[in-house]
Design brief:
Layout lengths: L10 H11 L2 H8 L6 H12 E3 L14 E3 L2 E3 L3 E3 L12 H12 L2 E4 L7 H8 L5 E5 L5 H13 L4 E5 L9 H6 L28 H9 L6 H10 L4 E6 L2 H9 L4 E4 L13 H12 L5 E4 L5 H9 L4 E4 L1 H33 L12 E3 L8
Parallel strand pairs: 4-5, 4-11, 5-6, 6-7, 7-8, 8-9, 9-10, 10-11
Antiparallel strand pairs: 1-12, 2-3
This protein binds flavin mononucleotide (FMN).
Flavin mononucleotide binds next to helix 2.
């Protein structure tokens, strides 16, 4: 591990260090995808397959990376995606992650399955950044209702409902490990006193057993109406992949769509999220904002997603690597690297502001004859 975070120069270096540091159970849980992990690899690979066309002599001085989302200006269109159980990476877990996001001016989304209470995480950001709460609905409606009210009361500004988990993806390493939470960690948002521990998996993942018994997984569009009746916050649906669902989201008055395949952890062999993006953008037709995540590891990846029409992007695993190598400082360095790379890429492509990024700047390597 490097004591000076500046010595990490790319996210890949951070990943390598984190993988070496994390205990096996946590490393496997964070790094894995479902089944053969094609979707996981494809998310990253597709960004490498996309190539960029750049302009020159544009008198590039400073670039403006700010955009507006849900009426609020953000200095950099990046979010830290919700990831469960962050205390496995660092003792401060979600609190350190949110602090780093707030210090760097990027958005933060907290998982229902956090190992720190949502109120303490929110307090850490002091209203400096867009703060979202990711919702898994429980079968127990009272419990879901309480989560929504607490999220609103503690300052979360949107609800990101995860919709790509009607079944739990088959994560084979977690099954082998009988995944369970290490001693002293529990799902603080729903179990303040730690009385309801995640079961130790017996020939199965304890998380998958928990979800199978507790979560309301038979979700439909009427559940969006239920949430809207419970809480007065914008609703984003997370895990969308198909343009028809974007059209339905517009029809049902959803406020935002998050194009995601859960970091390749749900339906294996689903197409890369950046490949799913253009059709989803077209279906949205500017009527709602689109966030995309999955496989973003470089500033050029962010640039490609924005050029293809996303309003913002999010990263999941990179924040966990940052936490593992240096807590809040590690996450902060990860965000700094992405920010620096993104600004450099904007200058090199000839875009002074985010709205200068256009789909014509991106071509697929399989079609090298740019523009024809
Ligand atoms: C370890 C881990 C835990 C996750 N937990 C959640 C979760 O609790 N809720 C959720 O909606 N998505 C969860 N996700 C998915 C992320 O929000 C995000 O969609 C994904 O990580 C993006 O891909 P990336 O890791 O390649 O950046 C998790 C992802 C990982 C890697």
């Amino acid at each position: 591990m490097k004591s000076n975070m500046k010595n990490y120069v790319s996210l890949w270096e951070m990943q390598d260090a984190a993988v070496g540091l994390l205990p096996g159970l946590a490393k496997d849980y964070y790094q894995s995808g479902s089944e053969d992990e094609y979707a996981l690899r494809e998310n990253e690979r597709m960004y490498r397959e996309l190539r960029l066309r750049y302009r020159v002599l544009q008198k590039m001085g400073d670039v403006d990376t700010s955009t507006t989302l849900f009426g609020r200006e953000i200095s950099f269109p990046l979010y830290v995606a919700p990831a469960a159980f962050q205390c496995m990476a660092h003792s401060e877990g979600e609190i350190a992650n949110a602090r780093a996001a707030a210090d760097r001016g990027v958005g933060f989304c907290l998982s229902t399955l956090a190992t720190q209470p949502m109120e303490e995480v929110a307090a850490e950001t002091q209203g400096r950044i867009p703060l979202w709460f990711q919702l898994y609905m429980y079968k127990d409606q009272g419990r879901t209702r309480e989560l929504l009210q607490r999220a609103k009361n503690s300052g979360y500004q949107a609800i990101a409902l995860t919709v790509d988990a009607p079944a739990w993806g088959k994560r084979e390493v977690d099954i082998h490990n009988g995944f369970h939470l290490p001693h002293g960690m529990w799902i603080r948002n729903v179990d303040p006193d730690g009385t309801e521990t995640l079961p130790e998996g017996d020939g199965s993942s304890g998380l998958s057993d928990y979800i199978g018994t507790r979560f309301h997984t038979v979700l439909g569009w009427d559940d969006i109406d239920w949430i809207r009746n419970e809480v007065d916050l914008p609703i984003i649906i997370k895990g969308v992949h198909h343009p028809e669902d974007v059209r339905l989201a517009v029809e049902h008055g959803v406020d935002g769509v998050w194009v995601s395949n859960h970091g390749g952890r749900q339906l294996d062999t689903s197409t890369a999220t950046v490949a799913a993006l253009p059709d989803c953008v077209e279906a949205a037709d500017g009527k709602l904002p689109i966030v995309v995540d999955g496989g973003i590891r470089r500033g050029t990846d962010i640039l490609k997603a924005l050029a293809l029409g996303a309003n913002a992007v999010a990263v999941g695993r990179p924040a966990l690597w940052g936490l593992a190598v240096g807590g809040a400082q590690g996450v902060s360095r990860m965000l700094e690297i992405l920010g620096d790379e993104f600004r450099t890429a904007m200058k090199l492509i000839g875009a002074k502001k985010v709205s200068d990024l256009k789909p014509e700047m991106v071509v697929h390597s399989g079609w090298p004859f740019a523009g024809r």
